């Protein structure tokens, strides 16, 4: 799961998807395309909305997406078109590029819909983003479980 700073959207997506997959069979992680929040905890508002929904993300630490992530992960979901372009630019070949998908394309195929960044948004923005990610992660979890079990 990849967003800009790895403190709002991608930590939520990591926590939500991890909660929907068998922990002994799958690894879910998140990263940011930027380096500003390396080593930092997720935004307190992301932690709060996750906790409200019985998911703990408070132990996550921000990290920056690197080219080694293409080898480490089978699926790379990005939160918006800007993150998509940033990650695609790091890909060394077509196989790596094919791992990268806009997360909301699972709900809205080929519409290139962004998950809005709630950082500077409305007071209920984190709740809205949580609900979007919860819905799409349910679809992703079902697909991954069906394909790999």
UniProtKB/TrEMBL annotation:
User: Which GO molecular function annotation, any one, does this entry have?
Assistant: protein tyrosine phosphatase activity
**What are the protein's UniProt keywords?**
Hydrolase, Protein phosphatase
> What is any Pfam family matched here?
LMWPc
Q: Where are the transmembrane segments?
A: none
Phosphotyrosine protein phosphatase I domain mapped to chain residues: 2-143
User: Superkingdom, according to UniProt?
Assistant: Bacteria
The residues responsible for catalysis, as annotated, are 3 (nucleophile), 9, 117 (proton donor)
Looking at the keywords, is Transcription present?
Answer: no
Which CDD domains does the UniProt record give? Answer: LMWPTP
Q: Which SUPFAM superfamilies is this protein grouped with?
A: Phosphotyrosine protein phosphatases I
Enzyme Commission identifier(s): 3.1.3.48
Q: Which family does it belong to?
A: Belongs to the low molecular weight phosphotyrosine protein phosphatase family.
Protein name according to UniProt: protein-tyrosine-phosphatase
Source organism of the structure = Flavobacterium sinopsychrotolerans
């Amino acid at each position: 799961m990849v967003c800009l700073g790895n403190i709002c959207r991608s930590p939520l997506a990591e926590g939500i998807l991890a909660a929907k997959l068998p922990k002994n069979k799958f690894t879910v992680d998140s990263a940011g395309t930027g380096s500003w929040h390396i080593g930092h905890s997720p935004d307190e508002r992301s932690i709060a909305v996750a906790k409200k929904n019985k998911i703990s993300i408070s132990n996550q630490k921000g990290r920056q997406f690197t080219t080694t992530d293409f080898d480490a992960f089978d699926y790379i979901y990005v939160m918006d078109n800007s993150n998509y372009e940033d990650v695609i630019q790091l890909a060394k070949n077509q196989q790596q590029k094919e791992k990268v998908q806009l997360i909301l394309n699972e709900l809205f195929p080929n519409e290139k819909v962004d998950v809005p960044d709630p950082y500077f948004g409305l007071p209920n923005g984190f709740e809205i983003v949580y609900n979007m990610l919860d819905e799409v992660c349910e679809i992703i979890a079902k697909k991954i479980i069906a394909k790999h079990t």
